[in-house]
Design goal:
alpha/beta; five-stranded parallel sheet; 6 helices; about 15% strand; globular
């Protein structure tokens, strides 16, 4: 079994990268797939409802006593909505511990940023060791290198299929471009927050494709988005609606946020 753990407070974009990468590595290695912390999926500062708009196959449910460094019942509080867990529970007599593997990372310390001076600028390429991990391993890290999952694009589309009752093409038009502006904690951090010039240049390039191109914003921070790009309509709704608007857009301008990667 190869799997990963959904961590408390982790954003949905990062969780989907961990889920997709671990599932693809398990498929590649011919191993069973499982997940720990299933009650934490899609539960964060943006939403407490859990993953209600997809039927994700989370694989085998890994109990706390099998997670390295955890004791039974130590995974944290369950989702406020009573998010159900899924999949058969892995069990053994006696219970076995899984191996923990941390994806390799590199941090560059540079004087152009207070954050990077203290913590280092996080840089992650592909960790080739993931492709040869032994059975019974949980993978931790950002896990965002495309080489981990690019060969399974068709399967990923099926895994991440949105339930029909949440899917909508209300904002799917040939002359409409959606800007996914990431605000929140990014808005107060100049090292992360994309400046107005980025968006203006991107919209200019879109108008080269279509002179009649129109623009709207989907964001987690409507107040910051209106200050950044006044005059554009701003949308922020439940998790499913924001996700589906990006998924079904004809044209997108993306930010440096993991949330939009898979719907895009």
């Amino acid at each position: 079994m190869i799997g990963t753990e959904f961590l408390k407070g982790q954003g949905l974009g990062n969780q989907l990268f961990c889920y997709i990468t671990a599932r693809c590595i398990a498929k590649e290695r011919g191993c069973a797939f499982g997940t720990a912390g299933q009650e934490q999926l899609a539960v964060n500062i943006h939403s407490k409802k859990g993953m209600y708009f997809m039927d994700l196959d989370l694989g085998e449910r890994i109990p706390d006593e099998m997670v390295p460094g955890k004791e039974a019942g130590a995974a944290g509080a369950p989702a406020e909505s009573g998010q159900p867990v899924s999949g058969p529970v892995l069990s053994g007599q006696p219970a076995r511990r899984l191996r923990r593997y941390e994806e390799k990372e590199l941090r560059i310390y540079q004087s152009t940023s207070f954050h990077d001076m203290e913590h280092g600028c996080y840089v992650a390429g592909a960790d080739e060791n993931l492709h040869s991990l032994p059975d019974d391993t949980l993978i931790y890290g950002n896990m965002q290198a495309e080489s981990y999952f690019s060969r399974y694009r068709a399967e990923i589309r099926e895994w991440l299929r949105v339930k029909p009752e949440y899917d909508t093409h209300e904002f799917t038009r040939d002359n409409l471009c959606i800007l996914n502006v990431r605000g929140g904690e990014y808005a107060g951090n100049p090292e992360l927050y994309l400046e107005r010039r980025y968006w203006m240049h991107a919209m200019k390039n879109m108008r080269r494709i279509r002179k009649d191109m129109e623009f709207i914003i989907v964001t987690d921070d409507p107040e910051a988005a209106r200050k950044l790009l006044p005059g554009l309509a701003v949308y922020h709704s439940d998790l499913d609606r924001d996700y589906v608007m990006l998924k079904n857009a004809v044209y997108l301008i993306l930010s440096n946020s993991s949330f939009a990667f898979f719907p895009a």
